[in-house]
Amino acid sequence: MVDLDDWPGSGLSDEELDVAYNVRRKAGPELFERHMARYRAESESAVDGLPGHPGIVYDEASGERLDVWGVGDDGPRPVFVFLHGGYWMALSRAESSFMARALYEQGIATVVPDYTLAPKATLEEIVRQVRASIAWVHRHGREHGLDPERIVVGGSSAGGHLTGMTMVGGWQEEFGLPADVVKAAMPFSGLFDIRPITRVYVNEYVKLDVERAAALSPALLPHGRRCPAVVAVAEHDGTGFVEQSRAFAPLWGAGEAMVVPDRDHFDVVLDLGDPESAPFRTLLGLVRSL
Fold first, then answer.
1. Mean pLDDT for the stretch of residues 283-289
2. Percentage of the chain with pLDDT > 90?
3. Which residues, other chains included, contact 48 with Cβ-Cβ below 8 Å and sequence gap of 6+?
4. What range(s) does the BD-FAE-like domain occupy (predicted)?
């Protein structure tokens, strides 16, 4: 039984929780906008001229779409499914394909799904949509140049939380998927126990109570099969994200969290577009181990 009153930061004041989890304020408006501009510019550059299949509807119920990038003529490629961040209420697939070219050059395809943002969608619905995108890759990936037996999932911030919600057990059967559909995972700066969100500004949009937050927390859910995973976080991340990553990595059997030096909450994941970076090499190792 989960103790609903015992969660990370439960003894902190609202102001202290804001310091721990309000990474946009920590960055400041100028640096935040510079990061967002990099997301857009590097994504546009990465997919310019890249073979792929953009704009595919993966979920008939919501009409949400995904982009497939970096397919080749060498048969179905292993696929990295990237789930964007934005605290479940911002960003889209258009800013989230910055790793596609670097992965393409290593024989790996990239899939970037959209999901309906809060408050238009509940977090339960967002999780369902993300899981539906994994189901689409497994069922239809081969006809689009993807190997459904080599799916690696990753994401940043809220996307790290959503990555965790694809790693846990108990949901795959509902979608007609094998328990090991996700073969490996690499969440960045994720939230794995989201009960603290009930007391920060984000809850104006996601509208969670503690009980619902607990039911949507990967750290508190049955793990099922533990896929290989690397839990990454930035050295200069929000303290809440650092603490959650450090706690989730050993819980998942992934050893210690990978702390990326000289990076903050927003630019750490951009290292996936740099073939020389440690995060990119780590992801490459995960994919090639399959």
1. 97
2. 85
3. none
4. 74-173
Question: How far is 185 from 167, CA to CA, in rounded Å?
Answer: 7
What's the pLDDT tens digit per position in 71-120? Answer: 988 889 999 999 999 999 999 999 999 999 999 999 999 999 999 999 99
258 bridge partner residues: 232
Say whether domain 14-288 belongs to CATH 3.40.50.1820: yes
CA distance 208 to 126: 13
Write out the H or E segment, with its range, that includes residue 156: strand 146-156
Angle at 110 between CA 288 and CA 24, to 5 degrees: 110
The DSSP code for 116 is P
Residues 6+ away with beta carbon under 8 Å from 118? 88, 89, 126, 205, 206, 207
pLDDT of 194 > 80? The answer is: yes
Residue 254 — very low, low, confident or very high, per pLDDT cuts 50/70/90? confident
Residue 223 has pLDDT above 90, yes or no: no
Domain coordinates of the chain in residue numbers?
Answer: 14-288
The pTM of the full predicted model, rounded to 2 decimals, is: 0.97
User: Which residues in 200-232 are b (16+ Cβ under 10 Å) and which e?
Assistant: bebbebbebebebbbebbbbbbeeeeebbbbbb
Give the full edge-to-edge strand order of the sheet including 258-264: 52-59, 64-69, 109-113, 77-83, 146-156, 184-188, 232-236, 258-264
Residue 73 three-state SS: coil
State both tokens at 67: 């982009």
Helix, strand, coil shares of the chain, percent, nearest 5, are: 40, 20, 40
Q: Which residues sit opposite 110 in a β-bridge?
A: 69, 80
Residue 1: pLDDT band by 50, 70, 90 thresholds? low
Report how far residue 191's alpha carbon sits from residue 223's, in angstroms, rounded to the nearest whole number: 16
